[in-house]
Amino acid sequence: MKPGRSNLAEKSGEGLAAIKKAKQEYRIIWDNKSKTINPEYIISKSRAVEKKAFRLSEFKKGISFFIYLSKKPGEIPSEIQTYSIIEQLLREGKTVSAPRMIKKDAMEACIIKNLKADIAPGNFGFYEATTSKNPDSIDVCIVPVRAVDSTGARIGSGRGVYDRFFAMPEYNSAFFDEFARPHIKTTIALVLDEMLVKYRDLPQEPTDKKIDLIVSSSMTIDCKYCREHGEPSRLRLLNP
User: Fold this and answer.
1) Which of 25, 120, 189, 207 could join 3 via S-S bond, C-beta 3.0 to 4.6 A?
2) pLDDT tens, position by position, for the chain (240 residues)?
3) Which residues contact 185 (CB under 8 A, 6 or more apart)?
4) Nearest partner of 19 among 210, 209, 207, 205, judged by Cα
5) HSE of 62 in the Cβ direction (CA atoms, 13 Å)?
6) Is 89 left (phi over 0), alpha (psi -120 to 50) or beta?
7) Domains of the chain: residue spans and CATH
8) Are 129 and 100 in contact (CB under 8 A)?
9) Strand positions, DSSP E, 157-204
């Protein structure tokens, strides 16, 4: 997936406006691509990604998970389905949190225990948690994306909600208010292969937060390793 200008704005120093425009091109491309993807394909790939995710040590050892509530197959944009993952984590006795919007461009993580009782349609086109209890910490944060590269650079919805969440100060016994968040140990993107973009090809703003791991049906990429070693040929595939 590649727009006409790639990351030209970032390379040539055209400025923040050009970077934002290039990122929006990726979103438009993915939304248009989503219209052509069969819902059964999304369901099949989501099952494959889920199996690989549960083989990760982060999933096996993790106690507290923060996971987006996915759109239904066939809705735009296409994304990996998360409800089955949430149900399995709850069966295993894990702590699961979902996003709840606290204002137009900010969210918090709220613990859910039942997918029927603890979530509802929100005001921004997706389901949200209806609970209010926050987790003490987050071992694994599953981040939604429209595009991602092997360094962990990602493009999301464009509202900056996750980047603002990551930028919040961590709360602890000495500091807590509405605009603080739990400590996050690992961030992971669960993706369709079509979301993967050429190495270092995504335009990024200074406030964009890169993720740690990518899981698709064909590969699992350690983004930290890729950022450290530089060349895509030296990717460490964890669960090929």
Assistant:
1) 25
2) 655 444 433 444 458 888 888 889 989 999 999 999 999 999 999 999 999 999 999 999 999 999 999 999 888 899 999 999 999 999 999 999 999 998 878 899 999 999 999 999 988 778 999 999 999 999 999 999 999 999 999 998 877 789 889 988 887 645 555 667 889 999 999 999 999 987 667 888 888 899 999 999 999 999 988 888 765 544 544 433
3) 58, 62, 137, 138, 139, 140
4) 205
5) 27
6) alpha
7) 8-228 (3.40.50.10420)
8) yes
9) 183-190, 196-197
Residue 211 to residue 166: CA distance in whole angstroms: 11
Rounded-to-integer distance, Cα 29 and Cα 97, Å? 30
Q: Where are the beta strands (DSSP E) in the chain?
A: 64-67, 95-103, 106-112, 119-121, 127-129, 137-142, 147-149, 154-155, 183-190, 196-197, 213-215, 220-222
Q: What is the DSSP letter of 233?
A: G
Calpha distance 185→62 (Å, rounded):
9
Please, where are the H alpha helices in 35-178? Answer: 39-53, 57-61, 83-91, 161-167
Distance between CA atoms of 90 and 6, rounded to whole angstroms? 40
Among 145, 126, 143, smallest CA distance to 1 is for: 145
- Number of Cβ within a 10 Å radius of residue 151: 23
- Helices 83-91 and 39-53: crossing angle in degrees, nearest 10, is 30
